[in-house]
Amino acid sequence: MSGTDKTPDGLVIVDKPSGFTSHDVVARIRRLARTRRVGHAGTLDPMATGVLVVGVEKATRLLGHLALTEKEYVATIRLGQTTVTDDAEGTLTSSPGASGVAEAAVLSGIAELTGDIMQVPSAVSAIKVDGKRSYKRVLDGEDVVLAARPVRVSSFSLDGLRPAVAPDGTSVLDASVTVVCSSGTYIRALARDLGASLGTGGHLTSLRRTRVGPYTLASARTLPELEETLTVLPIAEAAAAAFPRWDVSAPDAERLSHGAQLAAPDLGPGPHAVFDPGGRFIALVEGREGRAKSLAVFVG
After folding, report:
1. Residue-wise pLDDT tens digits, 95-105
2. Whole-structure pTM over 0.85, yes or no?
3. Which residues are catalytic (predicted)?
4. Domain containing 292: what range?
5. Does one domain contain both 220 and 208?
6. Could you list the active site residues?
């Protein structure tokens, strides 16, 4: 991209490295794209790696809707120890061990955490409590217990279970798992709750996000790769991949571009990407009482 080229509206699918915050990645893409208009869909903790969807220019308006899509993770849960953060970055709080836990018990515990469940988010999270981030309250010494919220764990599978010895000498079990879940699900909380159900405690030692909606690691690029070539998925392709497509006539596209509603008796639930006869991405809409209401307009 030359110094006079404008970065196109679209998505950058990043394979986030460990040790970087999501904000760190956004700052890097801002520099590469030479624009401040950059954001991300779905935060990854610094320890975590994998798919982080970054929007550039007009595509930032897609991000709030993309953040609500299904996500997939591979993770390692250490059974036998707990930490203050429910992951390996936090201070150890207990080491009861897990040497006597059978695989059948782990599978039973996983089954209980699959489906539509009520989950208490990790106290060390970005959720606001009376205007202040929960993790900041914990760091200030407060005892924070967040309210349970409904989440959907579509799939929670045990890929492997192996004995290990923690640095403090405790006999633990490391469970390799794959989780497919709704937005707002905390994998750290699944690790905590699995360990609690087994009486051993548990926390995450690794986390890698492999998919956000339709965007997978196969299309993700590392930061060094993006330094070489900033790969931007055009906004029309991004919208067509992530949302049901609705093709409309030129007059209807014109009306939508000015914020008008259209009759849409058969429009299903959730956002739909609207395209004109020339394949131009016009808007995101949702059906309400037989009408299509614009969520965001991307032309004009």
Report:
1. 999 988 999 99
2. yes
3. 45 (nucleophile)
4. 243-297
5. no
6. 45
